[in-house]
Amino acid sequence: MTIYRTHCCNELNLRNKNQKVKLSGWVNKKRDHGNLLFIDLRDHYGLTQCVVDKSKSIFKEIEKIPLETVLKIEGIVIEREKETVNESLETGEVEVRIENFEILGHTKELPLPVFSDQEYSEEIRLKYRFLDLRRKKIHNNIILRSKIISFIRTEMQKYGFLEYQTPILTSSSPEGARDFLVPSRLNPGKFYALPQAPQQFKQLIMVSGFDKYFQIAPCFRDEDARADRSPGEFYQLDLEMSFVEQEDVFKIVEELFVNLFKKFSSKKLLHEKFPRIPFDEAMLKYGSDKPDLRNPLEISDLTEIFKRDDVNFDIFKKLVSHGSIVRGIVTKNTSEKSRSFFDGIDKWAKEEGSSGLAYFSIEKSENLIAKGPVGKFFSEKSLKEIMKLMNASIGDTIFMSCGKKSEVEKLLYKARNKIANELNLIDDNVFSFCWVVDYPMFEFDENTKKIEFSHNPFSMPQGDTNNLDLSEPLKLKAFQYDIVCNGIELSSGAIRNHKPNLMYKLFEIAGYSKETVNDKFSGMINALSYGAPPHGGIAPGIDRIVMLLADEKNIREVTMFPMNQNAQDLMMNAPSEVDDNQLKELNISKRKN
């Protein structure tokens, strides 16, 4: 008991009947029934209905109180009439007859309603986030976030991990996204960087002899916002383990995620042993390394079909002869779909910047035939070959795209999701996890015409690392892996390269001299030279985990104080101008435009 309350607003029930109580909270809603005025009082925990009779001297005062005023109410707990019981409320069998009240906090006119979860402009919601967070849905999302993080911490400790904190002020990294830079007052002209991730530090922890590390780590990246990515900062479950192989990391993470998602969601887990999908297979079958396995549609390569003499689709054949590829998607039992369905898919593809999606349906009269705009170009023999390649049957439809590999993959990845949604093939009551493995160590950048690291430059390449053939670097695979759920990438991870001499060779392929590596990664290279254990880890994003479990489409719905799309905090007016004296202390001058 405090001077403000004897109970919270979710606690009262029939056991408290006739008790004198004190409650404090916000006026969530008012209902004037003439002789009776009802107030729903809300605190962090729940709601209690309070009532005052018109005959009471305080009636007119309470009647004037606006919503979201903070009140202390003193009164008697009474049983509700049977017909007014609210079974959806924990306190729904009782109400408090108001004997006295005190205004603890006055309110101005509200810029947005609090008692409903109706859609409101994002600008207003972010500017008045403290009001937005009072709303039931987002308030519960933030509570859920806290519970998820607490559960993760408990589970990690059960697995033998210890939590350590890594520095926030560190050095800039030449890899990854843009850094946030912090000028150093004591070292004029030099800058710290906020960590994009604790990558190097967690590896140094392993080199220091600690066996299992984790941290709910803040990360900072100066990159654009997306629905599933906050601009500026985010949190991740950062973990690292010594003396492990890839499967050891998978075992821990799978067990954690199965327990986590079973505890906080009623949705079904499609797999408790997550499928392992090689990167090349993922790009072929799904057009992406973030496959949504709830979607049964798969992509097949049809390029060889268009080298046959009995296929007369000249547009595709000509493109294939100049190096293009053809890939397709089969949809089951769709030949009887309306023309508008097929034209809609084709129109959508053109809106995506392609020339459209060619399609035909497989039918049989006397012979096997293809019905549709391009069906006439395929012989019965070629149709049988397509059906074999794509596991297609009579009554199915084939959608096809031809072009550069990257363009076809991008379009069919989107088309796969578009068509599945059109046909209602995706079960929203399922979580489907998978691992994408065997990433290429390097990739060729078409813009710079240079070989670059495809993922994490500190990853261990696959093969005999003492006698590694580096003559064809683009064929080299790495022990790198992503964990994906419902088409959302939750994290990348890797078994780390703990051998300095091998690291120098790999960085040289990507255009970094030994001197550059020593300069940019001095702490890491130096530490690895003093007896480093084999180690590996991963860092699933907390924000995306909560987004999935809260069944939200936008990460701002599970972040307490997010920025807007332009990386601005509208509530605190950040970023902001700073005083010239502050800049002078930091030896920084502003350039005049």
Are there runs of 5+ residues with pLDDT below 50, and where? none
Strand order of the largest sheet: 6-9-10-24-23-22-19-12
**Helix amount, in percent?**
25-40%
Question: How much is the radius of gyration in Å?
Answer: 30 Å
Structural class: alpha+beta
Kindly state the number of beta strands.
Answer: 24
Percent of residues in beta strands?
15-25%
Largest sheet: 8 strands, mixed
- How many H/I helical runs? 16
Give the overall shape, derived from the CA principal axes. globular
Termini separation (Å)?
61 Å
Mean pLDDT: 94
Structure in words:
By secondary structure, the protein is of the alpha+beta class. The protein contains 16 helices and 24 strands. The strands form six sheets. The chain has an eight-stranded mixed beta sheet with strand order 6-9-10-24-23-22-19-12, with helices on both faces. A five-stranded mixed β-barrel has the order 1-2-3-5-4. A hairpin with a 3-residue loop joins strand 1 and strand 2. It is globular, with a radius of gyration of 30 Å. The N and C termini lie far apart (61 Å). The model has no long low-confidence stretch (mean pLDDT 94).
